[in-house]
Amino acid sequence: MRRKGRLCALIMALALACTGFSACNSQGGENSSSTEPDSSAQGSSDTAAADTSDEALSIHYLSARGAQEGTMQSLQKIADEYKETHPNFTYETEIIADRSSYLQKLRILASSDELPDWFDSDADSFFAELVGKDAVADIGALYDELGVADDFYTVAKDYQRLSDGFLGLISWQANTEYFWYNKTVFEAAGVTETPKTFDEFFAACDKIKAAGATPVALAGGDTWPLLRWAAFVPFRTRGNEFIEKARVGEESFGSETGMEAANFVQKVVGYFQEGWSTADSATCVNLVTTGQAAMIYDGTCNCLIS
Q: Is the pTM of this model over 0.70?
């Protein structure tokens, strides 16, 4: 959320706190835009009279989320309700389904100082650069000002913080990640039990591959799924310590733990679908639900709405 859009942030942050939102990564959807009509909304008899004294306020939200995703629909509902008493308010969404294309446009806009009022981001090095340029709002301070910080789950706030503790991102949802699998594909390949260890996992992959199906669907175009696979071994051997230190340059993937992670990824890549490096989550979920692939590691934000 850019710094100039602070008033926009005040409006929505308070509304979101009241409706109990918390955090997740983006999901792709159809390219689309949705713009509120310019005419004033006519409130019902139990709605406060429209405040025509308000100066014009507009929010342009650039997102890689699907237009039909619950988050986007909820935000639209909040905007519609706000407009009933603030006729000079407009809310517009611009959706770019492909994550790589979305990030490319975001970087172009940032380089020309034309960031939209709202945009999706992770707490990564690019976002840290924007913070360093004072280009985004201080959401942590905003939460404190509104008195709503305690209304958000701690993990939803901490997940979005930079390494120095700065919070410049609003969390929309709370989700969890799982290994999802197609039972029919398992049965056809002779996999009779759900793998409980990685040795069992790789044994199952071999059977599935031999049966002619893709063992694992991977959305490499979304970047984060492959990073999860790279973190599986370090997390199981050293908890969060290795990844946290590697992120700030205090650990190396050339270390023993790092090489174990690299070897693990090198092995599992052989079970991904063709073209995995540019695939998005929606495509991969479809591969599993249609039986072309057996498994996917993904979040409830993507799989439960598919």
A: no
